[in-house]
Amino acid sequence: MSDTTQPSIGDLLAATVPMVRTLNLVYEVTTPERAVLRLPDQPEYRNHVGGPHAGAMFTLAESASGAIVLAAFGDHLSRMTPLPVRAEVAYKKIARGEVTATAVLGRPADEVLAELDAGGRPEFPVRISLTREEDGAETGEMSVVWTLRPNK
């Protein structure tokens, strides 16, 4: 990588969040509109039914939510810090093999930034769908509520 090349969001998160490296998460897409991450099939992270452990899938989905938040609001880190507030996950089907998490913002980014600019501490949801690579079936869904905490 040359000195003029900016690291990708995936590279940045892999460098600063050890769990991303531990699970070998793969960043497929990271834009302000959508983040897509993949959890490779790894025997050491399987559960009692042969699929990825629920904790690994939670981390995959939460990481996808963080990636889209950084893509949407990363240019404003000098004045705020994004923080997850709460998360809810539903496991719907058994996952086997590789699992993909696709995250989308639940509010328009410009609306969230306008609330921050007005002196507020905005909260906004990120919705994540977990799917099996082999057949595209949705195995789970997650919602993470984030806030932008103004820097003092």
TrEMBL record:
It comes from the Bacteria. Coiled coil: none annotated. The lineage of its organism: Bacteria, Bacillati, Actinomycetota, Actinomycetes, Kitasatosporales. This is DUF4442 domain-containing protein.
